[in-house]
Amino acid sequence: MVVIAVTLLIVPLLYPVAPLTGTVPERELADPDSHFADVNGLTVYYKEMGQGEPVIIFLHGFGASEYSWREVMEPLSRSGRVIAYDRPAFGLTNRPMDGNWTGTNPYSVQGNVELLDGLMDELGVEKAIIVGNSAGGEVAVAYAIEHPERVQGLVLADPAVGGGGHGGWLPQWALPVMALPQMRHIAPLLVRTIADEMGNDSIRMVWHDPSRITPEVYEGYRKPLRSDNWDKALYEFTIAGNPVSYSEQLADLKMPVLVVTGDDDRIVPTAESIQLSREIPGSELVVLKDCGHVPQEECPDQFTTSIQAFWERAK
Q1: Per-residue confidence (pLDDT) for residue 6, from 0 to 100
Q2: In this predicted model, what pLDDT tens digit does every residue of 169-187 receive, in sequence order?
Q3: How far apart are CA 55 and CA 52, in angstroms?
Q4: Which end of the chain is more exposed for a tag (fewer CB within 10 A), N or C?
């Protein structure tokens, strides 16, 4: 038993893990219309369009970035100010490593809540309509529960409320094991393998009709994989976990709430979004026909119209 224990503790640390090659600092991948803001010790990458009110802030899902809102930002900016930013571990927001941060773990849900609050302060936004897709929906709900005074309205697009995007699919006992130095050492190999094997298949899975995905869309999703430490950060995001369940607090959401889901969501089943809408008192529900998990990309016109109509009724 002693030999087995020593082997498990030592061998993973001795296994050679080659560093990433061909990666660059996040700023080198930024677009001409990009912005960066220093918030809570992080350099946050974001884009914005329009001015005035309402202010709409977009929260992307797992494996995505502000890029996933590209189709809806311009039309929605015609009647207000829209902001999309990259959450920690994704896109071009910088990626602190090995616990090299102060305060709350930036990859956790609570860290995301604090980052959103700080970003709103930094950008001079007092109140906003918060729009969260997939795992971004989980952060949106958490923020609305903690800071209801700053949320004019809440839009949950195919939301993974319950922890699926922040390690919620892992049993709680596994998280401390995955956080051991031995696991962190070999983690980049695991993450890179999964990214290589799933690759474009993961993108196709979230669309109802993947034949409509262009090469530019694939490239837009994979561009952040050229940034430094993307593999380690993705692992940190996964093991940050989220032990909090918001199901018992949904009744506390007093602001206008809209739940939008595609009728062919294979990631967060459509029935789950419908049930979530029932659990939020007074919420509205829109089911988009022939649409998958990312309605803002696959069905942008329907998605934009749904948000505009919701806000007009909720004003």
Answers
A1: 44
A2: 566 767 777 777 788 888 8
A3: 7
A4: N
